[in-house]
Structure formats: structure tokens, C-alpha cells
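Notes for week 9. Today we move from apo structures to complexes. The key idea is that a small molecule is not decoration. When we ask for a structure prediction with 5,10-Methenyltetrahydrofolate present, the ligand SMILES becomes part of the input, just like the chain. The input block below holds both the sequence and the ligand string. Read it once before you look at the output, and try to guess where the molecule might sit.
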Amino acid sequence: MTTIIDGKKLAQKINLQTTKEVAKLKGQGIKPGIAVILVGDDPASKMYTRNKQRKAEKLGMNSILKTFPSDVSQQVILDEIKALNSDDTINAILVQAPLPQQIDADVITSAIVPSKDVDGFHPQNLGRLYANQAGNYPVACTPKGIMTILKEYHVPLVGQHAVIVGRSILVGKPMAALLLNEDVTVTVAGHHTKNLASLTKQADILIVATGVGHLIKAEFVKPDAVVIDVGIDHDDNGKLIGDVDFDAVKDVVGAITPVPGGVGPLTIATLMQQTVELTKWSQING
Ligand SMILES: NC(=O)C1=CN([C@@H]2O[C@H](COP(=O)(O)OP(=O)(O)OC[C@H]3O[C@@H](n4cnc5c(N)ncnc54)[C@H](OP(=O)(O)O)[C@@H]3O)[C@@H](O)[C@H]2O)C=CC1
Ligand SMILES: Nc1nc(=O)c2c([nH]1)NC[C@@H]1CN(c3ccc(C(=O)N[C@@H](CCC(=O)O)C(=O)O)cc3)C=[N+]21
């Protein structure tokens, strides 16, 4: 029997813990705050940022959304980040990807103070993750949420082979580091990878984050593998689909995340959880 991983249920469990943490901080006169910067008017990005805002408010946090037109200059965004960096009511800053061409994502990423970098994109935070440093620092929410899934479902990690398809700073690279830090053997594939199916078929844990709808078919997976589908795409009828052909793959593998209702809800729940963590760490570090 294939386990269909219930991301919504797990997200609710995390949100409940977050609500309790927020209440505790409230007793100390502290309210966690998150700021989201959205550039342009892509409808999907708008919807996600609105969802994040609503969730933050529901959990009792401060949430502000700063929107800018798609032709905004890089300097305007940098000035906004500077203001948020020194705003004591804001503990977490997220700049929604993708950014328009005139803005250099690397410059933006490095401008966010590492202690408010809720996406874990800042080179200092990424470096600490890759070095497997002890201590408190933020990690990209989607990979961190996937680790929560793997642990909740008691997926064996040590010595297992994970194949990650996709190598972005948002998902693939931090995912690889998190798994390496847990003694998993990791292979990372991208669009140049030869014989993708023969590679993914070797995976005990297969994590796919490409944005190519239904890239992974039944012949790409090993029986009993654990399949984590990060991708968000739409089919010809506008229906939301993942990177994995769910109906074809689900009967072959041991466990699988659906889209929707898998990784997505965990990303949002982890974002909120990490906003609270950043708030607590800022109290410790002053
Ligand atoms: N559910 C959730 O919570 C989240 C979902 N997403 C979704 O996940 C997907 C990926 O996001 P993100 O990482 O930001 O995307 P990017 O576009 O930044 O990266 C996509 C990656 O996929 C690789 N890729 C593309 N096509 C292929 C292919 N045919 N075979 C193998 N590899 C391929 C690319 O390889 P190369 O580098 O070689 O070009 C690249 O590394 C998107 O659909 C996004 O919407 C993202 C974040 C959170
Ligand atoms: N700086 C930055 N950080 C991000 O984490 C980030 C980003 N930029 N840009 C875009 C991607 C995409 N992303 C998603 C989050 C939640 C769902 C989600 O909740 N999905 C629901 C479905 C929602 C629907 O119905 O469309 C689900 O899968 O169940 C999806 C995608 C975060 N991203």
C-alpha cells in the first residue's frame, strides 16, 4: 500500500505549535513580524504572497506586504530592504522570486541582514548550512519543510540514496545540504543531466523541483521509493499539477506527496515557524 503523504495535516500540526509559540511571545510583549516584498503583478505570485500574509495574521503575527511595479529600480528595492533591516517590528524578510531582469537577485539576497533572512538565501546562511555549522540560522523553508515530512513519516535517511532533480538556491541546493548533513548519499540533477530516468530509478528518496509538469513517469522510479514533488505547473485545462505524474507513479512507489496538498502547505507552515524562530533568536542575540 502506497502512503499518500498528507502535507495539509502536518502543516496544521506545525501551525498549532506556532500559534502556541506566538502566544508565549505575546506574554513577553513581543509580536513576530514578517515583511514580504513582491515585484510585478504575476497572478500566481500575488496569490501566494496573499496566502502567506493571511496565514501570518491568522497565527497572530504582524505581516506587511510591500508591492512594487515590474519596472521598479534595484535601488528602490535596496532602500526598502535597508528600512526593513532596521525596523524592530520586522523579524523576517522575504523577497518573492522571480525578480524582473533589471534586478540582480544576488545583490538583493546579500542586502537582507542574515538574522532576518527567512528564506536562508544569504551567502552567510547558505555557507553555514553547507558547512553543517551548529547554532541558530535560517534555512530555506521548502527543503526544511521536506525534512519535517521525512522525519514525521520515519523515512530512513542514513546511507540512503537521495536524487534531487533541480538545483536552485530556493530548493535543490539547500535540500542537498540538509540531506548530506543527515548522512544521506546525494545526487543532484539538472537539465543537462544525461539519462535522467536511469538516475532517478536508483533513488531511495526522489525529490523533484523543476517546474516541468509530469516530468517524472512510472519508469523513472524504483519500487518502494519515497517521492517528494515540489513542482507547481498547470496542465492544458489549467489544472494545478506537480513535476510527478501522480496517477502513474503512485502505485509503484512506497510513499508520495500529492500536488496540491503535499509540499506547498509545509512551505508556508515552515515559513511561519521560522519567523517565530528568528524572533526568538533576535531576543537572545539582542
Ligand atoms: N511547493 C512549494 O512549496 C514550492 C514550489 N516551488 C516550485 O518548484 C519548482 C521549482 O522551483 P525553483 O527551484 O525555484 O525553480 P528554478 O526554475 O529556479 O529551477 C528549476 C530547476 O529545475 C531544473 N530543470 C528544469 N528542467 C529540467 C529537466 N527537464 N530535467 C532536469 N532538470 C530540469 C533546472 O536545471 P538547470 O539548473 O540545469 O537549468 C533548475 O535547476 C517550480 O515549479 C516552483 O513553482 C518552488 C518553491 C516552493
Ligand atoms: N522568496 C521566495 N520564497 C519562496 O518560498 C517562494 C518564492 N520566493 N517564489 C515562488 C515559490 C513557490 N512557493 C510556493 C509556496 C506554497 C505553495 C502552496 O501552498 N501550494 C499549494 C497549492 C496552492 C494552489 O492551489 O495554487 C499546495 O501545493 O497545496 C506553492 C508554491 C514558494 N516560493
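Residues 48, 94-97, 119, 141-142, 170, 232, 240, 259-261, 264-265, 267-268 surround 5,10-Methenyltetrahydrofolate (ligand 2) (CB under 6 Å).
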